[in-house]
């Protein structure tokens, strides 16, 4: 088939863009945070506030993506979102105050939310034209590679850079990756009027009903439950583990390595067990991971949490998206955008609640009980989601 040679570069381009906005733009902040605190650029509370501004931006970006969902709109807004993402990461190299970093993390989050929704959506529409939808999940491998790369960039530059200069490796690498990725997607043979057929079916069904409402409520728990370890795990490692331990500088690398097989693994479990049972298993796995850091203080709890949460959260995302489409098969794009917006809203609550808890005299370690409670909430609501092919 003539379109087959273009499949790999297109998926690689999409993965590259997710690597830029999610790995280098968003999640590199997690391994950077302990060093930014150590360098005196931020304190722990300011670090939580900066994360909150980033997640607020991600929510705004996801909501904008709900509005700009047609191919013509994506072609116009996606390159601008990429430019804002790269430039805001670059500007962070000059952010010497917490307030400046708050503003830049907000902009970075808005552009991340737009790209994270729009790039996979554009590729999915293109794959649908060529009847290759089953390959769409490979785009999210860019997130996995981005987590590993972000950890390596922070580790390798430690001792060479300090303070705001620690952002330079991510900023410089983002520029060529974003440029190449967009060049590939700009060439896709997508008629701009094709999505009109998709939008025409949106009014035909309700977004929430007795089948889908428990799934939405469950997914809210997933967003809040995973974001605490994905934001503060390296910080807790610095606070709890003796100096010189491997996990002091590499807890994020453990998380990143655990993500690599997760898209394939959880997709396979969904096929073997069914999406709903596999999704329940993913909640149990993440809950065990968060409880490990609470009940097994020290290196063992950090390691178990990193492996179980890192190896599961992308699976929860993929399985939820797929299960939602079986519950509302004619509302795929609308449903996907709504779920991402909800997920980003509950992610926003995590760092904010952590900041409130710290203000009340609580510890960062004990704040992880919020994540455990959220995952238990998600698991209980998942029990009410019907099995449906």
TrEMBL record:
It is found in: Membrane. Keywords: Membrane, Transmembrane, Transmembrane helix. SUPFAM superfamilies: MFS general substrate transporter (SSF103473). Its main location: membrane. It comes from the Bacteria. The chain crosses the membrane at residues 47-66, 136-154, 216-241, 247-266, 301-323, 335-354, 366-385. It is a multi-pass membrane protein. PANTHER family: PTHR23537, SUGAR TRANSPORTER. This is YbfB/YjiJ family MFS transporter. It comes from Stutzerimonas nitrititolerans.
């Amino acid at each position: 088939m003539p379109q087959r040679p273009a499949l790999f570069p297109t998926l690689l381009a999409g993965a590259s863009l997710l690597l830029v906005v999610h790995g280098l733009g968003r999640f590199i902040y997690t391994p950077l945070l302990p060093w930014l605190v150590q360098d005196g650029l931020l304190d722990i509370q300011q670090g939580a506030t900066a994360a909150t501004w980033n997640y607020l931006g991600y929510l705004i970006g996801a909501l904008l993506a709900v509005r700009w969902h047609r191919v013509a709109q994506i072609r116009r807004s996606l390159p601008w979102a990429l430019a804002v993402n790269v430039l805001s990461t670059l500007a962070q190299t000059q952010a010497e105050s917490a307030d400046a970093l708050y503003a830049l993390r907000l902009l970075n989050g808005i552009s991340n939310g737009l790209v994270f929704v729009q790039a996979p959506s554009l590729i999915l529409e293109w794959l649908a034209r060529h009847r290759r939808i089953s390959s769409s999940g490979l785009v999210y491998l860019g997130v996995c590679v981005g987590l590993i790369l972000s950890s390596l960039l922070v580790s390798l530059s430690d001792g060479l850079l300090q303070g705001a200069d620690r952002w330079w490796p991510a900023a410089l690498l983002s520029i060529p990756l974003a440029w190449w990725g967009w060049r590939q997607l700009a060439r896709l043979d997508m008629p701009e009027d094709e999505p009109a057929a998709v939008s025409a079916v949106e009014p035909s069904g309700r977004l929430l009903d007795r089948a889908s409402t428990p799934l939405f409520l469950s997914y809210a728990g997933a967003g809040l439950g995973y974001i605490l370890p994905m934001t503060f795990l390296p910080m807790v490692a610095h606070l709890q583990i003796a100096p010189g331990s491997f996990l002091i500088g590499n807890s994020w690398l453990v998380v990143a390595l655990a993500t690599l097989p997760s898209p394939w693994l959880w997709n396979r479990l969904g096929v073997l067990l069914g999406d709903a049972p596999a999704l329940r298993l993913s909640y149990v796995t993440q809950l065990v991971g968060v409880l490990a850091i609470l009940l097994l203080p020290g290196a063992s709890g950090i390691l178990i949490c990193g492996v179980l949460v890192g190896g599961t959260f992308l699976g929860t995302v993929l399985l939820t998206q797929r299960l939602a489409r079986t519950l509302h098969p004619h509302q795929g794009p609308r449903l996907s955008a709504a779920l991402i917006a909800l997920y980003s809203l509950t992610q926003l609550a995590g760092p904010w609640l952590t900041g409130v808890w710290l203000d009340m005299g609580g510890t960062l370690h004990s704040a992880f009980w919020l994540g455990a409670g959220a995952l238990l909430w998600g698991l209980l609501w998942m029990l009410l989601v019907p099995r449906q092919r």
